[in-house]
């Protein structure tokens, strides 16, 4: 899930083009491209993600794409490919995962897209359950549930994800209450199509519920078990929420962070370390008789004029190339205050933001993504990260840190910021560090303990060999989160380094592999990337010139950074075991001691 992009708010504010913009949008909003492009109808295809680039910038190929419209067709597709021992991967409508989960190995693979597996099959208002096909988007799930008076209590904030995709990557919202914020922990039934032997016609539908021992593997599977065809959710009666964003300084964040999550059901925090601010989202269920018809249309997920996107990106590129840290800090303050003033896109009545609290029905507040609305194809407006126009291009480092380590991690980051106060202004241009609560799960590849997920989005150069401003600080925070504090990477985000040794942090990874072996013994749904992530092959990190700049490796030699541009491999400043690409100046020109 993207969660970005809000510098456009700045320009929006400057131009005050909201009205014109809305009208334009009704006519000319451009939908995201299909991530799959085939040169001959459905064959000779390439696939990318919605950002147009994988961490290693490779282009993934597949010989063919199929578009099943029902489970029956899906079974036939999997059977045919299994019979010929063909590699397969499941693709989704928009392809939001950053890592290469969607790529089949080689060039002969088959892509099975769930684009047309998007039907709501059954809504049982009495039992409060809902059965959908795996290509249904979160938006559709929320809307269909609401029609029956039901709600999925916790979910990611971006509604362009499909339910199959968000389960596969363990996506979540923010809560420590009840079963917690992971969507997969609200699943009560799954149907998954896997390869099979000739006696079963080469494919079979496995029907799982929560008493089935394989459910904990299938709920978060990285797509390597087969194709999930149907999912049944346990929902709740629809309810109202009351949201207040409270801005405070961050001096006691380390102490407050854990406590806050226990105080409010839908709590989250947005941290702006260089500004020394945190926004605490005080967010709870309230009685439905409280008045308010609030709506969330998050500014960073709205259709945005391509012209603004290009201007914002250009100014970011110029600030980077001129190492203008002050410029970034000025921009980030304007961006943040503009967003705050606009309630981040919240309105009290669906029209205007008059102040907090914003009270409204959960289904209108829990997620948004209006930039997906797309009456016609043009390039005048787009989602802020749409690669077909000049727009945002970033890395996302998203790591869950166990609650017992959160305090120390936050203090370490604050110590780093005390040394380099302007370092995180660049990240604040992407609306700071989003901190979401997530609970331990029984899913084998789910969270191992209650945690806070720290979600950081920051500048990525179009040139893989160009370091970013405060490169070393970002790398040090990333390595601290992952290695000093043993954080778990979000499966659908992150750069390669985050997955280095990650599987060892899962107590039941062997159980997961046992199920994988049983469901897909030939590994037809696996790829080199998934094997590497699951620890079955080495090579999750890639060693080459400049590799540390893109998070493909942790530097161990200067050449992994950009010595010709003054960036050398050095220890971290707070976390001494970190190895980061540091720009050498007269202050820190010490030799490397590895
Ligand atoms: C596949 O597409 C590429 C470029 O899009 C082209 O060079 C190649 O010849 C095509 N191959 C086949 C078998 O059509
Ligand atoms: C399913 O997706 C297709 C393609 O995006 C769309 O045309 C169709 O209306 C969708 N169907 C449902 C039931 O949402
Ligand atoms: C779970 O599935 C099994 C069959 O696999 C069935 O016997 C059992 O009744 C199901 N349990 C629930 C709660 O649906
Ligand atoms: C932060 O706020 C607290 C009160 O909430 C105050 O005591 C403290 O001095 C403030 N710190 C800074 C650096 O402004
Ligand atoms: C709202 O409902 C609560 C019970 O849920 C009740 O105590 C309260 O009096 C009601 N308020 C109004 C204004 O009706």
UniProtKB/TrEMBL annotation:
PROSITE patterns: FAD_PCMH. Pfam families: ALO, FAD_binding_4, GULLO2-like_3rd. GO terms for biological process: L-ascorbic acid biosynthetic process. GO terms for molecular function: D-arabinono-1,4-lactone oxidase activity; FAD binding; L-gulonolactone oxidase activity. Residues 58-238 form the FAD-binding PCMH-type domain. Its EC number is 1.1.3.8. Belongs to the oxygen-dependent FAD-linked oxidoreductase family. This is L-gulonolactone oxidase. It comes from Nelumbo nucifera (Sacred lotus). The lineage of its organism: Eukaryota, Viridiplantae, Streptophyta, Embryophyta, Tracheophyta.
């Amino acid at each position: 899930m993207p969660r970005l992009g809000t510098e456009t708010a700045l320009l929006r504010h400057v131009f005050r083009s909201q009205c014109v913009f809305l009208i334009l949008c009704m006519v000319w909003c451009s939908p995201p491209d299909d991530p799959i492009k085939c040169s001959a109808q459905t064959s000779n295809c390439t696939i990318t993600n919605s950002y147009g680039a994988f961490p290693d910038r490779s282009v993934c190929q597949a010989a063919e794409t199929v578009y099943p419209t029902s489970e029956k067709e899906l079974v036939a597709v999997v059977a045919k490919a299994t019979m010929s021992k063909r590699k397969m991967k499941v693709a989704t409508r928009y392809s939001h995962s950053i890592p290469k989960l969607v790529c089949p190995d080689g060039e002969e693979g088959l892509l099975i897209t769930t684009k047309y597996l998007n039907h709501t099959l059954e809504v049982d208002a009495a039992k409060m359950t809902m059965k959908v096909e795996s290509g249904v988007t979160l938006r559709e799930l929320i809307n269909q549930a609401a029609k029956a008076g039901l709600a999925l209590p916790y979910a990611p904030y971006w509604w362009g994800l499909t339910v199959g995709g968000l389960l596969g990557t363990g996506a979540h919202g923010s809560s420590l209450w009840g079963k917690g914020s992971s969507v997969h922990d609200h699943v009560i039934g799954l149907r998954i199509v896997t390869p099979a032997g000739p006696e079963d016609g080469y494919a079979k539908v496995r029907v799982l519920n929560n008493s089935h021992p394989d459910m904990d593997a299938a709920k978060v599977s990285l797509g390597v078990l087969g194709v999930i065809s149907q999912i049944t959710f346990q929902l709740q009666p629809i309810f109202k929420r009351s949201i207040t964003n409270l801005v405070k300084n961050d001096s006691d964040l380390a102490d407050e962070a854990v406590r806050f999550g226990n105080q409010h059901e839908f709590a989250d925090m947005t941290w702006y370390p260089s500004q020394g601010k945190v926004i605490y989202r005080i967010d709870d269920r309230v009685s439905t008789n409280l008045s308010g018809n609030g709506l969330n249309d998050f500014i960073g997920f709205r259709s945005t004029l391509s012209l603004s996107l290009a201007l914002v990106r250009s100014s970011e590129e110029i600030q980077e190339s001129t190492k203008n840290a002050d410029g970034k800090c000025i921009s980030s303050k304007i961006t943040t205050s503009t967003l705050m003033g606009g309630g981040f896109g919240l309105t009290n009545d669906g029209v205007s933001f008059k102040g907090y609290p914003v009270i409204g029905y959960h289904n209108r507040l829990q997620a948004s993504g209006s930039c997906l609305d797309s009456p016609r194809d043009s390039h005048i407006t787009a989602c802020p990260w749409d690669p077909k126009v000049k727009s945002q291009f970033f890395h996302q480092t998203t790591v869950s840190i166990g609650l017992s380590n959160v305090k120390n991690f936050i203090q370490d980051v604050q110590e780093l910021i005390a040394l380099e106060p302007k370092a995180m202004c660049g990240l604040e241009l992407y609306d700071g560090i989003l901190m979401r609560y997530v609970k331990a799960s029984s899913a084998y590849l789910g969270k191992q303990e209650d945690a806070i997920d720290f979600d950081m989005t920051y500048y990525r150069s179009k040139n893989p060999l160009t370091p970013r401003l405060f490169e070393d600080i970002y790398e040090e925070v990333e390595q601290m989160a992952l290695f000093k504090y043993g954080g778990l990477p979000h499966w659908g985000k992150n750069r390669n380094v985050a997955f280095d040794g990650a599987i060892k942090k899962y107590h039941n990874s062997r159980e997961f592999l046992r199920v994988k072996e049983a469901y897909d013994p030939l590994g037809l749904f696996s790829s080199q990337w998934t094997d590497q992530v699951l620890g079955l092959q080495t090579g999750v990190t890639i060693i080459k010139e400049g590799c540390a700049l893109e998070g493909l490796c942790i530097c161990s030699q200067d050449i992994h950074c950009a010595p010709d541009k003054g960036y050398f491999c050095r220890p971290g400043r707070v976390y001494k075991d970190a190895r980061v690409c540091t720009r050498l100046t007269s202050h820190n020109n010490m030799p490397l001691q590895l």
